[in-house]
Design brief:
Arc Repressor Mutant, subunit A; mainly alpha; 2 strands; 5 helices; globular
Length: about 110
């Protein structure tokens, strides 16, 4: 377990940099931190749509959705999700949404 300090806040993360403590520990400072590590300049409505879908699905099901479900729910093809989150739906989008590291193919 490691600790990251950013924007005057401290976050506990796992060995892969995913937020520990669940969505309850997630906040805008965490989003800004992940955004800076992902090379994303500004978040737009499409980024937030993906983040919100991921969080809603996780709250209901306890896991991140598969890519197919994420695409169907957001209406975005996989290519678009990679444009929004260059490191992908699992690493970038799930991390930014405050979800634990996905265990399967997200």
């Amino acid at each position: 377990m490691a600790e990251i300090e950013f924007g005057g806040e401290k976050f506990e993360v796992d060995e892969d940099g995913f937020l520990l403590g669940g969505i309850d520990k997630w906040n805008r400072t965490w989003v800004d931190y992940v955004k800076s590590t992902e090379g994303i300049d500004e978040l737009n409505e499409e980024h937030w749509k993906v983040i919100n879908v991921l969080q809603d699905y996780f709250k209901k099901n306890g896991i991140a959705p598969m890519v197919r479900i994420l695409g169907k729910t957001t209406g975005f093809p996989l290519k678009k999700i990679y444009e929004l989150f260059p490191s992908g739906p699992g690493k970038g989008a799930c991390k930014m949404a405050g979800l634990p590291k996905p265990t399967g193919c997200v």
